[in-house]
Amino acid sequence: MNFSSARQYFEQQIQQPDEHIDLAKAALYIAQEEYPNIDPEEYLNAFDTMAVELEERLPSQRYPLRVIQSINQYLYDDLGFAGNQKDYYDPRNSFLNNVIDRRLGIPITLALVYMEVSRRIDFPTVGVGMPGHFLIRPDIPDTEIFIDAFNFGEVMFPQDCQERLNQVYQQPVPLQPEFLATVSKKQFLARILANLKYIYLNQQELEKALAAVERILLLFPGAALELRDRGLLCYELRLFAQAANDLETYLIKAPQAEDAVTIRQILSLLKRMS
């Protein structure tokens, strides 16, 4: 598998209606750009095996909290999954193959493991994009139970979410209803890619950061800030024609942006160079 075919498979997967996107497959295609030799089917089969093993441990009466307790026991006690507290910004935490192999991840990738296993035992869960800390919740109407996959499947209620939010931002932050809203599958994948983008920017791995931005734009083609960032990365990588195109489009979409003056200066420079 080469780079371009992994990207093509990712694009094919996300072109479906959101409810038909296979999150695990799409996440594995993200990983396949970094690890061309992995076999996504092998990892999907691993989820199937986990679900079969977990099924044997489930209580006869499947009340949500008892099912969660069984999932937690299996994933965290038996299999040893854990949040990578020591090296949170290791890019491997964002690649699903590594998370399964190493049993280490960040909130969103551990949430994905949890969601894939729970779906297979007919206990579907959905992603909740709380700022600064990704959660999941059982896909049951009017349920106000949340699960923190990063912290060993801790069960949380809205008040706990408020406390976690204050903890993340180290100051009181009012809990808005949208903070606990369900994310779409495309939003879920974009958040994984955004994590990779910022890690690679910090590491000055600009080509890898660009690859993350390109895939975010496959998910959300009109995202102005991503167009700007692709333009700036292309400028740094001396891909000047693409840079000029993206930065011009950004200014059309956001003419009053705070950085508009800076972007116009870069565009003037690009015109003088062409």
From TrEMBL:
Annotated ranges, domain Protein SirB1 N-terminal: 42-193
Matching InterPro entries: SirB1_N, TPR-like_helical_dom_sf
Family membership: Belongs to the UPF0162 family.
Record protein name field: Protein SirB1 N-terminal domain-containing protein
Organism encoding this protein: Brasilonema sennae CENA114
